[in-house]
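Quick entry between incubations.
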Amino acid sequence: MYGINMAKGFLVTLKNFTKKPFTVQYPEERVKQHPRFRGEEFVWYEERCTGCASCAKYCPLGIIEIVTTPSETAPAQGDKYRLELFDISINRCMFCGLCVEACPYDALYMGSGFEQGQYSRKEMVIDIDHLRQADKHPSTFFRPQLEETGYDPRGGRPLHWQDVGREGWQWHQREKMGMRIDRPVPADLIPSDPPVDSSFVEDSPALSASKIEGDAE
Amino acid sequence: MNCVLGSDNILNDTVLYRVIYEAVGNVLPCGLSYVVAGLAMMMILVNGVLVGAGLFSWVERRLIGRFHNRIGPNRWGPFGLLQPMADLVKLLTKEDLTPKSADRLLFAIVPVAMLAPVILTMAVVPFAKDTALANLNVGVLYILAVTSITSVAIFMAGWASDNRYAMFGASRGVAVLISYEVPVVMSLLGVVLLAGSMSLDDVVSAQNVPFLLVQPMAFFVFLAGISAELNRTPFDLAEAESELIAGFHTEYSGVKFALIQAAEFGAVLTSSAVIVTLFLSGWSGPFSEYFGWAWFLLKIGVLAFMFSWVRATLPRLRIDQLLAFAWKFLLPLSIINLFATALEVYFLRDDAGTLATSDLWVMAGINFGVAFACLIIFGTLIKEKVRPARLITGDTLSAVEAD
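Done. Structure below.
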């Protein structure tokens, strides 16, 4: 019949009319964001950072600039370098997250924000003061320990440096107090004797141990 | 009570005018109070139409937003109600440009010529009992005459702009308006036949059964025709913002653009008012003695909702499809409707020439049958005309060249 498909079209728009609108009223409400979203505003925990500059070395664009000076106590005894400069020029950042993957101490995290628009390029360099004062809403990108706790970056609660590491925070505290740390080493990782055989055919420690015993006889 | 209108004066039927006239007549001389009362009515009419147009622009944007699964303007004022004010302020503060090579006089007249017919149409529409500004005995003719001024205004806009896109839009608009005027008039003749009068008051009082039920085909033809004359989707070829920048009002900006927009939105309201009066029994309904205006506004709201619905749903037609729809589909339908109505009136009316309510119900049944038959017949006829588009190959090209 003539016009039947037109009627179907009218029904489609009428169905839309009865639905809830799709619109998100942006400044008041936001789209629910994935916890692994790699956003602006890097989250940096100064207490965890040793100034090793791994992030700067791994950055493919070389936009992280770090200047450190050795501290008074010896770094070999657990103290860290003092940071003079930590600039991330975020205007060239491509948010690949390699700096976060490179950080050995879980001190650098991707942020969860997306509202750092500025009027000039100069304002888009995040310096060390900015990093210190910024809200700590780390993204869970490459940080499985945050995902396991069900943490949501847009949940509103900033995370303290003691909550974010892969290991217990007492470890860091004792290190900061200048104590030597006796790390508990698992027993099966301690070699009883250095391996004698240089062929590297047997890689099972039990087998190699029996072989060593046999050689001794 | 110094001044009293003569009973032969057509303004005597308008309650509001009479009240104002007699109140002012206590202070001023009669001749002057005649003018003052007229100016007061004009103020009410013009402001009513303009405020209504502003309100409808908000209503339509909200409605279309909901049809598109959006929210629509909601930032300024409660529910975004002040959005038309914001738009108006924005347009008033913009520069009012006139192209260098434009016909300055014509260019400046156009917004007024667009807006005037919209306001003039409301003059004869009764929006409650005895409230038409002028109860003309040729009301239907008056409406047809006044609304066709719009086509002249559109062509003036296109011509005066000295812009080829404006000219394209204007020539399209004139073609559409001329084509659709014919079926619109033909479909109105059925209503006039039933009412036995061209006065809109008589048309309303004749609708014991709403003419929507008695004349379903005429209603459909009139609705399609009027939305083509309003330049609204799916018939908005004169503007066609995706093809011709803005069609006939390409060169208009600032205040003039605001007036043209107000005219377009107001035209929807006045056309809805005309349709309500002619087909939906106007202001009559339960308690219409005192709440006629509420019924009138309610019915206008329903029609405006429908216009927005159509605009949100249907895509734009091509110009040849548009003209074919008018000449090949709507015109035959309106002729058949007129013929059937004339036969029914001839056989069913009594000696005094009036139709009883039961006769109207009989006619409603017959006309619905006719409408359904026409829909099926024309549907199959039109379907046979539609062929799949052929691929242009070397053979067809050479055949064309041979021709």
